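User: Continuing from earlier, I have the next pair ready.

Assistant: Great, send them over.

User: Here they are, in order.

Assistant: Folding the first of the pair now:
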Amino acid sequence: MKRILLGGAVASLSLVAAAAPLARQSAPPPAQAGQSPFRSSTALVEVDAIVLHKDGRFASGLRADDLEIFEDGKRQAIAQFYMVTHEPGGTVTSEHADATDYRAKRVFVLMFDEGHLATDSLMRVKEGAVAFIRDRMGPNDVAGVFVNGAMYKGRLTSDKTELIGGVHTVKPAFENRQALLATFQQFPRIPGERDATRIAEGARELVDDLGIKACREDRTECELNGGLQQVENLIQQKARLYIRQARLLADRTAQNLQTVARGLSRLPGRKTVVFLSEGFYLEDSRGVIEAIAAQAARGGTTIYSIDGRGLVGAPSPTADVRTNNRGRSTAFDTGDDGPNILTAGTGGFMLRNMDDMSRAFGMIVRDTSTYYVIGYQPANPTMDGKYRKIEVRSKVDGLSVRARKGYAAVALPPPESLLGGR
């Protein structure tokens, strides 16, 4: 493989209308006969694939014939295949020199979901974010801090001082989801989010059952609150208030995710969003979140999620941080579904049950350091806006493949370059 060391000035990307546009990237030259073609992501559907041995090591040295890709169950012809490696010293290695032109810089967006981070969680992820910027960003990496609904200073940058300053601006939300959920534990108790949803939708029998149970378990509180009928009214009011507030928080998160996904789709190559959140209410917005994941996947953005709550109730510090089996109590909270849709749909993963946020960020950095790029021209070339399922399989025994699950068949905007001259 040919090794190419790329440099460049500080790169910036505006996700707000007022910022200056970047220079357009010129299209790569057509492939010569006998060569593996290389084209921009607007010409092909590109899929980044992480291929691992059973022991977790990356499976290097694969060829296009070792993998196969399917769209909506139909096998697709692989037109482009190569591996990209970001080495610790900033060197970018690829079989294709053209590929390194727009994959030389890893792009990270640290997205703080303030409305879904309790104060202790926010402090924990902020500390991890600062350590990531200070210790793990390479000389060719650029990043942005998405806070309070916008990119800090409206750009991506390699200036670590600016990025750390952006992290320091993140403040706890006046009202966050965990504070809202805490009311479920107060008299009269509501078992959890799903019950609150059913109550808000008019489940009268559930209200009656919870009211009777509350008055039976605490007669004094029942009497102080006006008796059974008033307790049932209080249960309904509490559930409706929570659902209304949870929807507002979830809508804001969805809007922010969509803003980031659309902005990053203008950059060719792989982009990484680190979504820092405790999860969010999904009952009314599942379709919206699925659409955002599909849009992000089409634009080459991979989403990783870090749960800011850290190690809570886990049986041991070696618990599997990438599975749903964990010791943390979720009696009131069902918020993991949203981050799971985002990460699984774009080829990333969720990290939870970890107090060491530096380790969590480190796992994401390693995952973005080496990957295969598979490009194919869909058998159905019509960009009709519909969701198309993707599956990447290994023909080599003992290997597992993680890649995005699908994409929204929409045309991408013209690409903008992150690379500048010295």
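And the other member of the pair:
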Amino acid sequence: MDLHALPKVRDSWSFLYVEHCRIEQEDKAIAIHDMRGRTPVPCATLTTLMLGPGTTITHAAVRALADNGCLVIWSGEDSVRFYAQGMGETRSSANLLHQARMWADPAQHLAVVKRLYEIRFEERVPPTATLRQIRGREGMRVRRAYAHASATTGVPWSGRSYKRGQWNKTDPVNRALSSANSYLYGVCHAAIVSAGFSPALGFIHTGKMLSFVYDVADLYKTSVTVPAAFKAAAESSVALDRRVRAACREALKEARLLARIIPDIQLALGITKSLEERDALLDREDMEPGELWAPDGAAVAGGLNYYDVGDSNGEATGTEIDE
């Protein structure tokens, strides 16, 4: 599979949510079969396929999706729960290793946190600002976004309230927000995994397997999911989830979100080389199985039998092996 022949994440469709259907491979793509008939899906241009309740999928279909770099997510009803994920399209670990280095260094970690907030604020954070002050500023920004959306749509707003075990007792706008955020998490998760980052190594959020997803999604909530959720709630509470999905798709398209996510991650993590340039060097088939770690930081060649290593210069003299 030529990974560089695949469409870039920014050029792909955002996501497709399906439920109560059967998914099969068809040619090099997939087809969805339900009570309305058969719907072909060109998975090479799809970033995320979200599988809701009542969905079955064949092994061949999963393989076709994986080969085309489409992330598969198994979700709960209304997409408000995340159960499992498949694999994205990159085979390079360069982005993950860079993310891990930034995460593990306290000074670099704090620098990433500040850059993430700067992307939200769309301006520089004062160097003397404490993390507590920055969080307070963020809280005020989010409060203003909710108030503006309420005033614009006429939907009453009394605060964010959501309890997983009492979904039906939550007011429509809070249900709409939870659903919209869930879809945003799926899209951000797809971009993160497709680019080879870890969804678990968060900088602002911590302790969850999706901590970095929450970091990235928070960059866009006030501009994408908050307006979409209030718009859907203003129309009616009937078939709310379907209308939230439609509003989110339109909002994601208008915001050109897939073209922004990876550049924003690169900016936050201080990555200067383009993904395409790094992937061209590190994602080639001829570099498998990759290099071997050494304690001095200078990696050594992989794919060699080191039983025969050890000339006068200490360099490998082993023969190539198939790992």
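Worth noting for the second one:
Strands lie at 13-18, 21-26, 29-34, 37-41, 46-51, 55-57, 71-75, 82-85. The domain at 3-85 is CATH 3.100.10.20 (Ribosomal Protein L15; Chain: K; domain 2).
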